[in-house]
Amino acid sequence: MAKVGMYGGKFLIIHQGHVSTMIRASTMVEELHIILTHDEDYEREFYFNGTTMKPIPYHQRLRWWNELTKDLPHVKVHAVAEKQTGEFYDWEKGAVGIKAAIGKEIDVVFSSEHAYGDHFEKLYPSAKHVVLDAERRTYPISATQIREEGAMKHWAIIPHVVQPYFVRTVVVVGTESAGKSTLVKNLANLYNTSYVEEYGRKFYDHIGAEIAIESDFPKIAFEHKYHETEQAKRANKLLFIDTEANVTQYFSWAYLGYEQPVLDQVAALQNYDLWLFLEPDVKWVDDGTRLFGEQTIRERNNDYLKAILDRQNITYHSISGNYHERLEQAIELVDEILEEKLYGETNE
Ligand SMILES: NC(=O)c1ccc[n+]([C@@H]2O[C@H](COP(=O)([O-])OP(=O)(O)OC[C@H]3O[C@@H](n4cnc5c(N)ncnc54)[C@H](O)[C@@H]3O)[C@@H](O)[C@H]2O)c1
């Protein structure tokens, strides 16, 4: 078996074609070095310009390769900076950094392009060029196509560790008994994906307490974030989320009579793709835990929550009417997100 193999690329974005080549190559050498070459200015101009996708930082790509190879200890991942000066890639310059990163003789260079043979013969004269799946039979896709057409259209060939980065998040907010949890579950089932329940409710059910104390609210906000991360891993393009840190802030005010700066700090880290604000114009349902059933109080609370969102410069879509009308309004907005019309592809 050959000793040292190299498999290089920009991996903008990593797709299953790259993963299958990496796995095949990893069975053919004693150690495989994945080289991620990067020049973010060049990539912005020549790879992302004119696409709906935002540039992907190289440390994010490196992290994906780390996750994808975590059970393959003989596969090493390196990032190699390659400052480009013109439109065309300088192979010679690139090879200097690659050889330095690997630090030993390279026996095999893997790619899926016969066309790279001439470069590799010149730059790595003692190495063999092994071309894997040149016809791209396993995954007939290119990263260029994904950048141009968007990740949503090619979801099935986006590796599972990469998918959460592209998941579109839809958060549903509102005061008590505005229909949040029903809408969130309906939307998740309708779009065949995962959702995050309001954690505050579970928190109080779990401890069996009715009295709220100050420290409950940061705990609720933190735990809610954990569930968002976990459910994003299971999401099919979309993740529906019931409440977030501003609603927790509102509940702190409603139950304790004051807000907590830590909840604003959590809220400042949030970056949802779509905010649906449910107006309190459906019947108030007393589920045994709710306190604010009188309509004037519901409206006062509603104004307070909106003021919190305005203060945070959040653009939300107001959803009102009966349950059918609410669902249809939500679907229309979610479809725009899926079609990447509303905000385009936005990432962290
Ligand atoms: N200078 C060097 O010596 C050297 C050597 C190797 C790689 N590189 C870097 O890699 C780049 C060349 O690779 P690229 O631009 O094609 O990178 P890329 O990130 O688009 O692709 C990386 C590799 O995956 C293969 N691939 C793409 N789609 C595939 C699919 N559907 N199925 C199977 N395999 C697939 C590509 O052919 C390539 O071999 C260079 O621009 C450079 O950044 C440099």
From TrEMBL:
Alphabetized Gene3D superfamilies for the sequence: HUPs, P-loop containing nucleotide triphosphate hydrolases
EC number of this enzyme: 2.7.1.22, 2.7.7.1
Record-level Gene Ontology MF annotations: nicotinamide-nucleotide adenylyltransferase activity; ribosylnicotinamide kinase activity
Alphabetic keyword roster: Kinase, Nucleotidyltransferase, Transferase
EC primary class: transferase
InterPro entries: Cyt_trans-like (IPR004821), NAD_biosynth-regulator (IPR052735), NAD_NadR (IPR016429), NadR/Ttd14_AAA_dom (IPR038727), P-loop_NTPase (IPR027417), Rossmann-like_a/b/a_fold (IPR014729)
Protein name (database record): Multifunctional transcriptional regulator/nicotinamide-nucleotide adenylyltransferase/ribosylnicotinamide kinase NadR
Lineage: Bacteria, Bacillati, Bacillota, Bacilli, Bacillales
Domain NadR/Ttd14 AAA: 170-326
Domain Cytidyltransferase-like residues, every copy: 6-148
Gene transcribed to yield this protein: nadR
Segments crossing the lipid bilayer: none
